[in-house]
Amino acid sequence: MPRIEEIITKALERVNGNRYQLSLMVAKRAEQLSMGEENLLDIDTRKMKFSDIALREIAEGKILLDGFKEPSDK
Question: What GO biological process terms are annotated to this protein in UniProt (predicted)?
Answer without folding.
Answer: DNA-templated transcription
